[in-house]
Amino acid sequence: MKKPIATALALSLAGGGLWLARAHQTSVSTNAPVPLVNGKRITPLGEQVNVGSFPTTLLPSPDGKFVIVSSLGARSQLTVLDAKTGKVVYTVVPKAVGNKKPGLYYGLAYNGTTLYASRGSDDVVDRYFFPILEGRILGAITPPGFTISVPKAAGIAVANDGNSYIAVTSSEGDPKNGLKGSMTLFGLGGESKKVGLPGYPLGVAFASGKFYVASEQAGGVDVVDPVAGKVLRRIETGAQSTTLLVSPPAPNNGGASVLFVANAGSDTVSVIDTATDKVTKTILLRPAEARGIPGVTPMGMAVKGNLLYVACADLNAVAVADLTTGSLRGYLPTGWYPTAVAMTEGGLLVANAKGVNARNPNGKPAEVAKGVQPQYIQNIIEGTVSRIASPMPTKQTTAQVLANNALNRARATLKNPGIEHVIYIVKENRTYDQVLGDLGKGNGDASLTLFGRDVTPNLHALAERFVLLDNFYCSAEVSGDGWNYSVSGMASEYVARNVPYGYTGKTRPYDYEGTNNGAVPDRLGVRDVGTAPGGYLWDKAIEKRVSIRNYGMFTDSLAAPRTTPEEGTTDERTTPLKKALIGVTSDEFRVYDTSFADSEAWLKHGLPPAPKQKTAYGKRGDKSRITAWQREYTELLASGKMPKLMLIRLGRDHTAGTAAGQSSPRAMVADNDYAVGQLVDAVSHGALWKKTAIFVLEDDAQNGYDHVDAHRSIAFVISPFVPRATHDSRFFNTDSMLRTMELLLGLNPMTLYDATAAPLTVFGPKPDNDAPYTAILPSKAIIGEVNGRTAYRAKDSERLLNPLVEESEADEELNEILWRAIKGAKSTPPARRYGLK
User: Fold this and answer.
1) Which one, 117, 188, 275, 713, has least CB within 10 Å?
2) Domain assignment of residue 36, yes or no
3) What would you report as the CA-atom Rg of the chain, rounded to the nearest whole angstrom?
4) pLDDT tens for each residue of 740-794
5) Separation between Cα atoms, residue 573 and residue 591, nearest integer Å
6) Which residues of 129-277 form beta strands (DSSP E)?
7) How many domains does the chain have?
8) Domain span at residue 464?
9) In this structure, what CATH number is given to the domain that contains residue 431?
10) What pLDDT band is residue 833 in, cutting at 50, 70 and 90?
């Protein structure tokens, strides 16, 4: 039956259902005067259009008239752009599979006029056909044929030599098979065969009768014979190989094509002759000013003539290389985190995964509207596609990229006034307004405060006595990438891509704190796919022989192996997940567990434990984390063996929502506050106080609202060298704190982010602010609060939140639960708004 074309409605039957999607066009203004929360600046070239959340792939149609964009975040969609103008002509939202939130994942490929789009954890590949009449797209329909079903469907490629194979990679590692991966080959008749590969394969391409597959885990490319269904050979290229591009056959190369491999962890592109399967060139895309320091992250590629265009995600730029010489021509500035490029009739299209807005506030009281849903950090960042009509790099565009990345000036330094010991505390998920909005000074909004002075008296007192930082930002969005930024200075491309996918209702293992698909790769001798290219803070300390002691970071209980990726831990042994942390990690310090107390507040008030509270841990039956830490700290003082760097995780301020039988959100945050107070109390009364600096931050700010930006958070620098009552409103972020600690301890930077970050220059020349600090015990009424069965959304909290696991799907709902549990069930959270200005 023919459909009328009176409206711009897309009709799709993909996945067995019917839905409508309206074409739209929205203009976006850039906002460049202030830095991004990660410290970089953006000055994107070209015109912008919105394409949903976190676009990852651009694919020109076979006729070259359109470009398909695949976005995998909160607003996952296929966007069809006019190749000449870059304007949106059609949008298709995928249909949900079962009760899962609909989503797409990375892979796009054409087979004739049929478009294939991978669905990731939906374990299927969608197929679309876009009929066109007089230049207009009539709809989106699914052609008949077999169903493509692949676990964790990712990269897609089609054989175009008459064999008609379709290859789909599975972006995962099998914990029962050494975290190895696989690719599935489909024939026209629906027959399939599975090919074993290194773990976490992503990009796949077809050339010279062979499939080439890139591995994010192992790096490099595996060459697969589609007829035999086996690996022919392996080509070593670089670390974290992701995206592949096949160029047209070269006339002087016997008709063989050239394969380009983006090595995201090595900041290189490898050029492979598909006739010989040899690497002929390796093009380094890292600026000379950043020699030896990773952080460029090459991804999507396009070729025009002898020029190669590469989206450099962490440089916020497109690198342009000369293929004749294998040298870098220069850079073009883009939006935030470019992931893909496409060369079209209208110029160069660039997918900016995080858009072009430098600030994304998620709490504006003036926008409160009755009945709206609360905002969540992963919902408000809108991805865009830029159209750059004349994509030729110049001295000016290259200089702009270097300036945007702070590479055109000398790196900031810091004179150590006498600090020999650094204590680094990482907490969980609070915004600035949520805690310090009621402080009475600084840029706060008290209407957004949930955990004010009555709940967090120590954080308030420490901000008032030492330094108030009201322009401090977490560099990441949520815990998945937040923990990587907090200890690595950046997130790997794998983490950056999978966090927005997994945190918005699509099932994906939490692979971001030392585990991959529930297994522990580093302990198995396998590369951790989530590791950032520069390693970890403790690696830099070990490199410089700086002594360390770890309390809770990247730890788990491994004696009872988990059978599912997000199952809780039950054993009584705290075990490090990284080999480097073996022997320097306290096994008496409880792993992440919101049912176990951070502080001794409940004991000091003589309160009974909450019904579901874990009351003791370890061989000595400690009643709180701070009890275990303080005992060791006292022993280390007495022995004269105090480490130079202490890493401490205090995560109970995450809360367990309103789950019945658990301490209330206010009680958990107050407990966490007192733990910080107790630690500062102990250090300030000890012999090393005048040689110590304590740094405190949240790994991310996802569980709250803030009127400046969803990433703005609380942070503290506590030391006798910090002048009393300092108020510093300069821009700082997670990497600023890391850089400060590195400079104090003489450590090398891990990545371009921390290498170029401005350190927290808040220290004076003398330890004048050296009076001991006495911890403030929050009130008995608050510490004793327990969630009852009738608490607001108590059953939902129990269903959503496992006290032993940082959740990757429940946090958006947790924001609304916390708001109404504290402000009142009938109160209105701040209105939902997206990052559109």
Assistant:
1) 188
2) no
3) 26
4) 999 999 999 999 999 999 999 999 999 999 999 999 999 999 999 999 999 998 8
5) 9
6) 132-133, 136-137, 148-149, 153-158, 166-174, 180-186, 192-197, 201-207, 210-215, 221-225, 230-235, 241-246, 258-263, 268-273
7) 1
8) 422-491+532-561+569-727+737-823
9) 3.40.720.10
10) very low
